[in-house]
Design goal:
heterodimer; A: about 375 residues; Metallo-beta-lactamase, Chain A; eight-stranded mixed sheet; 12 helices; 19 strands; about 25% strand; globular; B: about 180 residues; alpha+beta; OB fold (Dihydrolipoamide Acetyltransferase, E2P); 2 domains; five-stranded antiparallel sheet; 5 strands
Chain lengths: ~375, ~180
């Protein structure tokens, strides 16, 4: 079918999220990846396969929005199977230094014997290097994918990160590098990757969606959401009607002006994935109260705040109770929100399919929250 | 009428022995074991039998997964890699990934006093540590045990550094940016 479809895959307690977008006909892009903690399968890859997508040819672009584990796990496996896809991410201005950093830090990951972001990035770079295809670097106002044929006009544009953020990233890489030089005792400076997060504006014909990633607000307009509002030259004249709400709906990612200026509130559909791990619980009731007033429909991939200890062999449960009774499972709750527009129908509005644990949030649900 | 177990009476090394005389203890224990009839020793492998009691009280032992030595081994354990998520005055919170199986993650709060002094300086948000919990057999005594050790950064030698840089140079030559 000729659909503009935005599917948010969420997992609950910090296992990650991914957005799979169909841009009409056989044009697909994927933003980020996350995995099932038991099967270790890439969830967007699993989803694409379940839809019968020709993965080798139809996935045109894979975007890594930022380097948090909950957005990158499994992206190497996804890239491996999507043989025609361009790989895009925001890279430091000094690319050689960036590659050195990846080389050194991924070696550190291997010593730790479990995967993390630099190790995965290193694998992705090896894949594109073997394929002899260029890596697309992401910067504010850059068009990452466009196509105009067969009755569809597609444009995927980056709204962030800004020049200032990319420049800071270069400085940060230099600092991080010093910690790997033999006999160095320099302190590592780690800044939040959320400020380097890629935000995408995806337009198909007259319809626009904003994929907010994990971008947070800032105090100035050189970075964060204020930078998009004040400095972006490519914001669509057609106000967006779908918003993947950033950073699990946290207060840090809420910028009132974004809601006021970028969206068509009569049509707006909000997509959310939670982050609930027993300590952190996002989104909060207060934020949901704000969101629901600004949207026509609000969906979430799951919301399960129950954290219980895992069931284990009796003797081990006794040992756990003796040494650390606070140990609790972080539940894996997969849900998929599919919002779609049939491009063959004029003036269509977003339709919805919900899978797994996903559901629509209403005022009754919010009132019942503690 | 006492309720101490046979095992406790025989191997009460925490009361009577110190680490300095462990080799002697080892010899004593072996001799005592050999003096026991074989049938009795076999039955002791699966139960502790209460001495001086009218009835035998059988206690289930934890499932034994591995035994590296006859005297000192871990019977049953769980192992995690933890990443420090939050640090407070007295405690810290970590997300834990079980290293024995592919399963969901866990979260727990730890007391800072559980960390060895030599590891305390490594406690930072994002720091990685190994946590094991389970049962250990110390010379016949089954004990619950919890063990936390923070990961150390291994400094690169000059050779390792150069070798990684050689690989990176190949990538720099090959990779194209758009």
């Amino acid at each position: 079918m000729n659909l503009f479809r935005v599917s948010l895959i969420g997992t609950g307690g910090g296992y990650g999220e991914s957005v799979v977008v169909q841009l009409g006909l056989n044009n697909w892009i994927v933003v980020d990846s996350c995995i099932d903690p038991v099967t270790k399968e890439s969830l967007p890859l699993e989803y694409l396969k379940s839809l019968g997508v020709q993965i080798e040819t139809d996935v045109k672009l894979i975007v890594c929005s930022h380097w948090h584990n909950d957005h990158i796990l499994g992206i190497d496996k996804l890239l491996e199977e999507c043989k025609s896809a361009t790989f895009a991410f925001a890279v430091a201005s000094d690319k050689n230094k960036f590659l050195e950093f990846i080389g050194l830090d991924s070696r550190n990951d291997k010593l730790l014997s479990h995967t993390s972001s630099t190790d995965i990035m290193s694998k992705c770079l090896s894949i594109v290097n073997q394929r002899k295809i260029p890596v697309k670097t992401i910067l504010q106002d850059r068009v990452l994918y466009s196509r105009s044929d067969e009755g569809v006009d597609i444009r995927v544009t980056a709204l962030s990160p800004s020049d200032a953020v990319i420049s800071d990233f270069g400085t940060e890489i230099s600092e991080l590098m010093r910690s790997y030089v033999p006999c160095s005792n320099r302190k590592i400076i780690v800044r939040s990757p959320n400020e380097k997060c890629v935000v995408l504006q995806v337009s198909v014909n007259e319809y626009t969606a904003i994929l907010g990633g994990d971008l947070e607000t800032s105090t100035d307009n050189k970075r964060g959401w204020l930078c998009i509002l004040d400095n972006c030259n490519c914001i669509s004249k057609n106000k967006a009607s779908l918003y993947k709400i950033p950073h699990h709906g946290s207060e840090n990612a809420y910028e009132k002006r974004v809601w006021d200026e970028m969206f068509d509130h009569d049509l707006l559909v909000g997509q959310l994935s939670p982050f609930i791990n027993g300590k952190v619980c996002l989104p909060t009731k207060d934020m949901l109260d704000i969101f629901i007033k600004n949207v026509n429909h609000l969906y979430i991939t799951s919301f399960d705040i129950l954290n219980k200890p895992k069931k284990r062999d009796n003797s081990l449960q006794k040992a756990i109770r003796a040494f650390n009774p606070t140990l609790k499972e972080i539940p894996f709750r997969k849900g998929i929100i599919e919002n779609y527009i049939d491009l063959d129908i004029e003036k269509c509005t977003w339709k919805t399919n919900l899978h797994g644990k996903a559901f629509e949030i209403d005022n009754e649900f919010i009132s019942a929250m503690r | 009428m006492g309720d101490s177990t046979l095992q406790n009476n025989k191997y009460s090394f925490f009361d009577k022995y110190t680490n300095d005389i462990l080799p002697t203890l080892y010899e004593d224990l072996v001799l005592e074991e050999l003096q026991q009839p074989i049938k009795e020793r076999v039955s002791l492998l699966s139960t502790f039998e209460t001495r001086d009691c009218d009835r035998s009280e059988k206690i289930e032992l934890p499932l034994i997964k591995s035994s590296k030595s006859n005297l000192n081994y871990i019977c049953n354990s769980l192992n995690w890699i933890g990443t420090v998520a939050e640090i407070k005055d007295e405690t810290f919170t970590a997300v834990l990934i079980n290293t024995d199986e592919n399963t969901t993650h866990e979260i727990a709060e730890f007391e800072k006093k559980e960390i060895s002094n030599c590891d305390l300086h490594l406690l930072k948000v994002g720091a990685v540590f190994y946590w094991s919990i389970g049962y250990a057999n110390y010379y016949g005594q089954i004990m619950k045990q919890s063990f936390i050790r923070f990961k150390r950064s291994i400094n690169l030698s000059n050779n390792e550094f150069e070798s990684i840089m050689d690989e990176v140079d190949k990538l720099k030559e090959g990779i194209m940016w758009e």
